[in-house]
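Page 42, continued from yesterday. The earlier attempt failed because a stray header line got pasted into the input along with the sequence. Redoing it now with the clean sequence only.
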Amino acid sequence: WQKISIETGWETALEAVLGGRLNAILSPGKAASENRPPVPLVFCEPGGETETQVEPAGLKSLTSMVDSKDAGWRALMQDWLAGVYALDHSIDLESARGRLKPGEMLVNQHGDVFTRYSTSLHAPQSALHGVLERQKELSALQAGLPKLQQNVADLSSKLKQAESTLHDSQESLRHKQQALRAATQSLHSLNLELQQLQQQQKHVLDRQQALQAEQQAARERESVLKAERQQKQTALEALRNSLGQLQTSHQQMGAARHKAEMALNEARSALQQAERLAQEKTFNLKLINNNIKDIKDKIEVNSEEQVALKVHRAEAETMLAASAMESLKTNLEAALQLKQQRETELAAARDAMAGAENELQALERTRMQTEQQLHPLRDKLEQSRLQDQEARLYFEQCQASLAETGLNEAMLAHDLSPSAKVADLMRTVERTNAQIEELGPVNLAAIQELTSERERKVYLDSQAADLEEAVMTLEEAIKRIDRETRSRLQQTFDEANRNFGELFTTLFGGGQARLELLGEEILDTGMQVFAQPPGKKNSSIHLLSGGEKALTALALVFALFRLNPAPFCLMDEVDAPLDDSNTERFCNMVKKMSERTQFLFVSHNKITMEIAQQLVGVTMQESGVSRIVEVDIEAAMQMHSEAVA
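This time it went through. Structure tokens are written below.
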């Protein structure tokens, strides 16, 4: 059969005519008659020349449809197919039969053979059935094999290029991921620095606002001080105008001072006496000390007044010397002459003191009046001096505070309100100080702690963001896994359900069976088996018999094996509840599935044992002693054939 070929569609016809001769082999000569084989064999001796065959009218010989590259094989086919004609659909069978001679036959494409008086219907009877068709298919496949191999080579090269491209892409992706991680770290550090700068900017803005408030207060205070200074300058001008009168009064005060010093000496003597008396009288000690304190205060005031008068006098003399030196000289000469005259009069008065008590009393009254007029002026001058000194000190403090803050004086003057009062500003300052005191002690390390806590917060925020991103990535991965798992599980379930229905129908010879999900979500739901053998309307699988339940379970197991075949399958007396017909269907199913899976089964059923290729039994010829007995079915069948022959 490997040396010949026939027109397409007539392969079955040629197999029906030749039969076992398709498997003929070259004749070995005399060895064929000396050593007879145990099975039928056909030997052939191709050779010779072909002869021209006369075909009946309207018929075509089957030999003309057979082709062989070797002339010897063509002659052999002419010998074997002599008198065999092809029966086409266009030829009438009865008329063609009438034209046949003895030994001639007709054969159609189905392999049915018709002689003049008989009809033989063809059916496959050997393992050689379809070998010619398979030979053609094999030839076509071998012809297309180089092209397929070339395609495989091209695809392999493309696969290598794709793998190389994939490797390069993965390497590029790894570098890009490293660059992305570096950029992310840089971004985190830049965000940290940005937040630090923002905190510093906020601190500077707060400090600037506080300084602006202080600047506003200083400007208001400065305006008040300027007003007071203007008032004091006005008063100073008035004092300068009355300087002449003050000088005259000062000369008069000199004599009064001399007398006051004498009185002071007397008072000191009295004080000493009082101190001696204070030792004896402790009760009056506090009163006397208070008097002493008052007297000392007055003395200090007099000393300060004297110093102040000297200063004012020096200033006045300087101013007078600068303004009108000539007039002052004239006045001075007049004053000196007047002084000499007064001294002369004073000497005369002293000489006549004893007789001029009335004049002295008048002068004393005049002096007292002058002192009474001098005391308010002196108090006013002292108050002005103290206020001026206080204003100068306060002004210096304001300038020092302004220098510390670094603010511009013009800006403060512009921000201060002209209508603001010192009392209101002082109350504002006191209120602010009270609020500051209520805040309690200041933590000098608060800024550093705040900075560190903010840095820690930024770090924790970045960690939290990374964790949230990781959680999102995990959730996406879980969703993707659930989606893929759901899709694959659904496909697996559908395939297993389809196989289960087909195998159930095969095992029962009909009926229907399916798998049903108990819920909508396939990932966490259960599954129910629904089975109805032919002729039954059961609503539950529990209503089936033991054999029907066993066959249903076998259909489900075989459906899973068809979905994912295992290397072997072990069954333990699964055919026990089955009757003979069900056992035969079970055995046929095992035979069919044994092409991909090796079955090992324990059984006491003879029908099941017949399909086994190897039997292993356990016997106990002696009590308590087991023995393994093995039987090779093929070897046993061969021995049986030899024994029968």
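Notes: The chain has a mean pLDDT of 76.
Reminder to self: strip header lines before submitting.
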